[in-house]
Amino acid sequence: MSNGKHRQSVQCSLIVNTTEIAKMANVSVSTVSNWKRRSDTFPEPVGTKDGKPAFDYDQVAEWLQANNKEFDDNRTRNLVWEYANLVRGKVEPTEGMALFITLLHLRKAANEYGLEAQWQTLIGGGDRESWLSYLDAIDAVEHEAGHALSNHVVTYARGLVESVSVETIRDAVALVNAINLSKIMTAADMVIDAMGNGRQAYLGDNGSPLYRLMAEMANAWAKTCPNPDPTFYDPACGGAFVAMQVALHNPQYRFALADINSFAAVIAQARFFLQFGKNATETIVLNDLIHNDPFPDLKCNLSVVTPPMGLSASSDTGVTDPRWAYDASNGGGRRPAFPSETAFLQDCIFHLDGAGRAFVALRPSFTTGRSFANLRRRMVADGVVEAIVSLPRRQLRDTSIPIDIWVLSKGEGRNHVHLIDCASATEDVAQQGLPAYLSEPLNGYSDGKYRWMDVERADILADENISLAPNRWIKPQGMNPKNICLESTEEISEIRQGLDQIDDESNPLRDLPNSLANMKESRVFTLRELVDSNEAELIRGNTQSVGRDSVYQEDVITPQILSEGMASLTKSGNVGKREHITEPGDIVFRKLGSTHAVVDVEGGHRMSHTVLALRMKGDNWIPEFVAICLQAAWNQKDTPRNIAGQIDPLDMELPVVPLEMQRKLVEIQRAADELKRLSAAAVGYATTLCNAIRFGAEEGNDPPR
C-alpha cells in the first residue's frame, strides 16, 4: 500500500459525528444540528463517519468551550475505542492490547530521549526498516545511560514489526499520536480494561478490592521506613498494578520486579515508563521463580505478591536452594511436586531485610490445610509470621475463593501472631493495639468492620493443626460469657411465658375436634365483587422511594416491613396531598410474589407503591380473618391457574362465613403463632446453651429479671 493511499484512509486526529457530539455535550442531536445551522464559527466537517458528517474532535471541543457549553472530555476514551475497532479481527485481543501499549511506550520514548524527528517519520508511514532503526535508537540511548527501561518493550516491538502488517501498525500509530501526552497513562489502563476481557489473568486484577487493600498496606508500611534508598520486591508482578500504587506515593523506593509471562513484563515495563519516563526506578526480569532466583543478592524493605493460584511446581526443583528454608524436604533427597504458592511465600521471606515486611495473598488452604501444617509450624516457630488477615469472598473479580493476607517479617523475639478476621465481622468494634501500618488500611476497609486478637506462639504450636485461621481463635461476635448469660436469661423468660400460655385452659388448641368431616364449602366472593358492591375498598400505595436506592422513611409500610413486623413503624406526619394513608384495621399486603398480609391495628401510615391496603366496610368481617385468607394457598401466585406468575389482587377470593367461624380461625392462628414463638425461643436457648458449653457463661452485675 502506498503512503499516499494510506494517508487518505487514516485520520491522524480524532473525528466525531453529530451523534457523538450530542453525547459529549449531553444534548439532543437536533440541538447539535441547530448549533451547526445558527453558528458561523461551528467547525466545518472534515469527512464522514458511520454515514454522517464528521468533525475534528479538538475543533469541536474548542468551540464548545468558547461558547460556554459544558461537555465531557472523552477524547482519550474515544481514541481507545477507535483503536479497538481498528484491530478487531486483525490481531488476537491480547496481542492488540500489547501492541497499543507498546506504541504508547515508544511515543513516550520519543519525548523522553529526543527522538521526535524519527517518530514523526513513522507517523508519516514508516516501513519495517524505519521501525527497526527507531528501536535501535532507543536501545542505544538506554545503553549509554546504563539502564534498561524499555528492553522488554523493544524486544516485543521487534517481533510485532515482523508479524503484524505495516498498514495495521501505521493506522494504530495515527491514533496513538492523537492522544495527549498527559493522558497517555490513562489510555494504557483504558485499553487493558477494554481489550483484556478476562484474558489478562496473568496481569492481575487492577480494580479488585484485594489489590487496593494490599497497596494501602504497602503504602502504610512504606511511611515507617527510615532507609533513604529502600527496595520494593514483587516476583509475580503481572501488570505492576500494586507496585505502581506504591511508586506513586513513595518515590524513594526502587522496584525489583519479575514475572514468568513475557506479556506481563511488557505491560509492567510500559506502565512504569508511561508514568515516570526516564526517571523510572524499576528493574523487570523474565524469570521462572521456582527454578531461578530473579535477584539472588536482593534484600528488600517491602514485598507484595499475589502468587498465581493452583499451579504445581515440578519435583525437579533444587532441594538445596536456600530460599526453601521452611520446606519439609529441604536438606536433600528428591522432593515431591508442591503448590507453587509455597515457593513464593518462602522466596519473599528470604529476600526481606531485617526490618522489612512482606504481604502475600494466599488461599485459605495454606492457613488451615493439613498438607501445610509442617510449613506453618516451622514458620511460626521461627517467628516470621507477624499477622494473618482473612478477607471476605469476591476480593478478586475472577474467583469467589476467599483470600488471606500473610504479613511476614524477620523480627526477633516475636511471641505472638496478630490474627485479624475481616471475613465474618458485621459490627464496628473498637480497634486498638495493632501496628499502624495494619490498622490504618483496615479501618478504611469494609467500613472498619474486623475483629482481631494476639495469639501466643506457644498456643499455635500446641494446636494439633497449627491453624492460623483467625476464626479458629477469635470468639464470634457476642460469644463472650456475659453476653451468653444475658441471652440465656431472656430466652428462658420467653420460654416460661410461652409455656404458661399453652397451659392456659382457654387455649383453643385444647378443644380441637377429632376431624373436619362434613364441613360445607363456603360461598366465595372475589375482591372485585366486594369492591363493586361497596363492601370493601382497595387502596394502592403510592409513596415512592427516596433517591435511587429504594430508601423509605420510617413511617412507610414496605414489603420488608410486612415480613419483619409493624412494630418499627412511626406515625406519618408530613403527608403529601395525594399520598394514601392507612386507617385502623386496614389489611395491608404486597401485590407481587407470594402474598404476606398484616393488619395495621393503629393506622396512620403511608404505603410504598409495592403494597396495597384492603379496607373492609361494615361489621361482617374480622380483619385478622381476612389477612389469613389473603395468605391462603388459593390466593398465591404459584397456583395452577396463575400462569403468568402473579395474581391480580382483585381476583383474590374471600369465603363468606359467620363471625363465630371467623373468630375461631383467628384464635387458632394466634395460638399457632404463639407456638412458633415458643419454638423459636427454645431453638434460641439450645443455641445459647451450646455456645455456653463452648465459651462459658458469666452473670453480669444486673442480669434482667
Write the layout of secondary structure elements.
Layout: H1 3-9, E1 15-17, H2 18-25, H3 29-38, E2 47-49, E3 52-56, H4 57-66, H5 75-87, H6 93-113, H7 116-123, H8 128-145, H9 151-163, H10 166-177, H11 184-196, H12 209-222, E4 231-234, H13 241-249, E5 254-259, H14 262-276, E6 282-286, E7 300-305, E8 312-313, E9 338-339, H15 340-351, E10 352-362, H16 365-368, H17 373-382, E11 385-390, E12 404-408, E13 416-421, H18 436-443, E14 451-456, H19 457-462, H20 470-473, H21 481-503, E15 523-526, H22 527-532, E16 536-540, E17 556-557, H23 559-564, E18 586-590, E19 597-600, E20 606-607, E21 611-616, H24 623-630, E22 653-656, H25 659-695
Please give a structural write-up:
This protein is α/β, with parallel strands linked by helices and about 700 residues long. The protein has 4 domains: about 5-75, Winged helix-like DNA-binding domain superfamily/Winged helix DNA-binding domain (Arc Repressor Mutant, subunit A, Orthogonal Bundle); about 80-200, no CATH class; about 230-475, Rossmann fold, CATH 3.40.50.150; about 525-655, Adenine-n6-DNA-methyltransferase TaqI, Chain A, domain 2 (Alpha-Beta Complex), CATH 3.90.220. It has 25 helices and 22 strands. The strands form 6 sheets. The protein has a 9-stranded mixed sheet, with helices on both faces. It has a 4-stranded antiparallel sheet with strand order 16-21-18-19. Helix 6 packs across helix 10, helix 6 (about 95-115) runs parallel beside helix 14 (about 260-275) and helix 21 packs antiparallel against helix 25 (about 660-695). It is flat, with a radius of gyration of 35 Å. The protein starts with a helix and ends in a 10-residue tail after the last helix. Residues about 1-10, about 330-335 and about 640-645 have low confidence and may be disordered.
